[in-house]
Design goal:
heterodimer, A: 112 residues, five-stranded antiparallel β-sheet, 11 strands, 0% helix
């Protein structure tokens, strides 16, 4: 099955700086790559996703890039704010596939 | 998302006891999942189901069993609970026409 690795496990940045989280996957058949944000005590929620037919997607301060050849994808958060502090998970799957495998998570702390 | 409901929210049980965690959804999704979350280990897939006749093992199925009683209900059982099954458990759903996974609120299980 799919194996997703995520780095770093913890990340601390100053408010206003950028944050980058990286993931690699093993199954070349995977073509859907979502990112979830989990605030303390809450459930994970989708913040952005990308399919393999595009290399980059942006949504305001958040962007995701995908390199299918190298089988890695990254989350970029610009102009970080304290409310961006959370655990972020990457995942890989096929859009209509039955299983979805997650990375181990990155705990992002944004210091005011 | 109130459309995916887990019960109970918190449970303390003794070693060797059988316990069932329940998940119900009103989203009309066919795919349902059980994940386990441990600190630093992200979301590990236990079981997933495509429909009531389809049950599949995930990464860490040993010690767990599931039942898909109806399209809307997916239960996770620990036949004989052990302390290292202490964790936060999440149910999630995905629709056939949607790649996004929706999570329940989570069940915090403690085995003493």
């Amino acid at each position: 099955g799919e194996n997703v690795e995520q780095h770093p496990s913890t990340l601390s940045v100053q408010e206003g700086d950028s944050a980058v989280i990286k993931c690699t996957y093993s199954d070349s058949a995977s073509n859907y790559f979502p990112w979830y944000k989990q605030e303390l005590g809450k459930r994970p929620q989708l913040i952005i996703d990308i399919r393999s037919n595009v290399g980059e997607k942006k949504d305001q301060r958040i962007a995701v890039t995908l390199n299918k050849t190298a089988k890695h994808f990254s989350l970029h958060i610009t102009e970080t704010q304290p409310e961006d502090s959370a655990v972020y998970f990457c995942a890989a799957s096929t859009p209509w596939g039955n299983d979805m495998r997650f990375g181990a998570g990155t705990r992002l702390t944004v210091k005011p | 998302d109130a459309d995916v409901t887990q019960t109970p929210r918190n449970r303390i049980t003794k070693t060797g006891k059988r316990i069932m965690l329940e998940c119900s959804q009103t989203k009309g999704h066919d795919r349902m999942y059980w994940y386990r979350q441990d600190p630093g280990l992200g979301l590990q897939l236990i079981y997933y189901s495509f429909d009531v006749k389809d049950i599949n093992k995930g990464e860490i199925s040993d010690g767990y069993s599931v039942s898909r009683q109806a399209q809307a209900k997916f239960s996770l059982s620990l036949e004989s609970a052990i302390p290292n099954q202490t964790a936060l458990y999440f149910c999630a759903t995905r629709g056939a026409g949607s790649a996004e996974a929706f999570f329940g609120q989570g069940t915090r299980l403690t085995v003493v």
